[in-house]
Amino acid sequence: MQVVKADNPILMNSDVLGNPTPEMFEAMRNAKLGWAAKGGDENVTRLFARIAELTGKESALLIPSGTMANLVALITHAQSGDQVVLEESCHTVWSEEWGLSYVGRLFPRLVKGEYGIMEPVDVAAAMDQSVFNHRPKTSLLCIENTHMASGGTCYTPERTAELARVAHERGAAVHLDGARIFNASIALGVPVKGLVGSADSVTVNLNKALCAPEGALLCGSKEFTQRARISLKRLGGDSMHKAGLVAAAGVIALSDRTIASLAEDHVRAKRFAERISKIPGVQVDMKSV
Question: Which of 75, 112, 141, 156 lies 20 to 30 Å from 120 when distance is taken between CA atoms?
Answer without folding.
Answer: 75
